[in-house]
Design brief:
3-stranded antiparallel beta sheet; binds pyridoxal-5'-phosphate; 12 strands; 7-stranded mixed beta sheet; 2 domains; Aspartate Aminotransferase, domain 2; Aspartate Aminotransferase, domain 1; alpha/beta
């Protein structure tokens, strides 16, 4: 009964479900406190108190017919203006409400922009390692994904390989900084060069190439690292933002797209994206959450908890002999597998009740992703198990 295009998705989904079920099985056998699940990027830091207060205030103070009603498919004008003002204050941009389209999170924002710009057969470039859902999003609109291999050991994009892979068929390039799964933040220098290459290739091919900057982790950066605002380096940029991580609201499904005036045919692209939002079935972003975002545009989660987890886990794992780039953002460590076969390494981790995601799930075998958006107690309790895994793989251990 199901469509052919769905078949590979169903097969892949069962792999993820297997991992989830494995976690439950281990928890039932050994007790949940003895199972160290680092597989999911689900924030464990609560949403700021201001969000709860804003929900209560919206319900108390605003007209319920308005709050729960339909609005423009792009979202409430005042909410979009508040988002634009906040970006302008923080990043020196000059956006206005008609640059901002409220979306059902980043997943939906990515689908909206890809539906808006892709013709069948158009090529979309991504840099490995990357969030594997991009492949499904691109195939939803019959685009073709082309993967630029990882640049080791720093995981900044390999710009020379990128230059070679751009072709007259390239319609879009997706970047994600701070990055899932590496935690790397692309430097200003990288973004400037990336913009130069794109302009050069647009000229050479006589085409337009859209840079899509997927930014759910923008606010999660440590050590005072700046996350440069991508629209400042390349005009044909669309920013895809989400509050899933920055306000710990992944289940509420709220985010936005920025389609700047500088982009070619900006007004047309914006109008088409609003229609895409509607016909994809989202219609509009959740109304109550939009009202809340207006009151919380400058709020953020407590980053200290993630930072503490990051330092503790990175410090301990590198002491045990694992190699890993020190992440500057997001909440992931991307650790080099000490065994050639990363699947074997994942099995050894599982024997010690540690669940991690193989790098092949991000098109980068030979590594594993450890999501440290867990309790500090889980990290502390897991360290002896990590030390044992290290020894089992011929590393120092504790
Ligand atoms: N993009 C990346 C890189 C992600 O890691 C995620 C979620 O983990 C998403 C997009 C989707 O985020 P959202 O919850 O806003 O749809």
């Amino acid at each position: 009964m199901i469509a052919e295009k769905m078949m590979p998705l169903v097969r892949n989904n069962s792999a993820i479900r297997t991992m989830f079920e494995e976690g439950r099985r281990l928890a039932a056998l050994y007790g949940p406190e003895n199972v160290f699940d680092f597989s999911l990027g689900n924030p464990n830091v609560p949403a700021p108190d201001a969000v709860k207060q804003a929900i209560l205030d919206v319900l108390e103070e605003e007209d319920p017919v308005f709050v729960h009603g339909y609005m423009s498919n792009a979202g409430y004008e005042d909410v979009r203006a508040a988002v634009a003002d906040s970006l302008n204050r923080r990043f020196g941009t000059a956006f206005h409400e008609n640059n901002i389209l409220m979306t059902v999170g980043a997943a939906s924002g990515m689908n909206v922009i890809l539906k808006t710009i892709l013709n069948p057969g158009d090529q979309v470039l991504v840099f490995a390692p990357y969030f594997l859902e991009y492949g499904s999003y691109v195939r939803n609109y019959d685009g073709e994904l082309s993967v630029v291999p990882p640049h080791l050991p720093d995981f900044q994009p390999d710009l020379e390989a990128f230059r070679r892979q751009l072709s007259p068929k390239t319609k879009a390039v997706i970047i994600n900084t701070p990055n899932n799964p590496t935690g790397v933040v692309y430097s200003e220098e990288t973004l400037r060069k990336l913009g130069e290459i794109l302009r050069e290739k647009e000229k050479e091919f006589g085409t337009d190439i859209v840079l899509i900057s997927d930014e759910p982790y923008r606010e999660l950066a440590y050590d005072g690292v700046e996350v440069p605002y991508v629209t400042q380096y390349y005009a044909n940029t669309v920013v895809c933002y989400s509050y899933s991580k920055s306000l710990s609201l992944p289940g509420e499904r709220i985010g936005y797209l920025v389609i700047p005036d500088e982009m070619k045919d900006s007004g047309e692209v914006f109008a088409a994206a609003v229609i895409a939002n509607r016909v994809l079935g989202c219609v509009n972003a959740p109304s109550l959450m939009q009202r809340v975002i207006k009151r919380c545009v400058d709020e953020g989660v407590n980053l200290e908890a993630y930072d503490r987890n990051r330092s503790r886990l990175y410090g301990a794992l590198t002491e045990y002999g694992f190699s890993c780039i020190r992440p500057q953002g997001a909440f992931y460590l991307f650790v080099k597998s000490p065994l050639e076969d990363e699947a074997q390494f994942c099995r050894i981790c599982k024997e010690h009740n540690i669940l991690v995601v193989p790098g092949s799930s991000f098109a980068c075998p030979g590594y594993v992703r450890i999501a440290y958006c867990v309790s500090y107690q889980q990290i502390e309790r897991s360290l002896p198990a990590f030390a044992q895994v290290a020894r089992a793989c011929g590393l120092r251990g504790a």
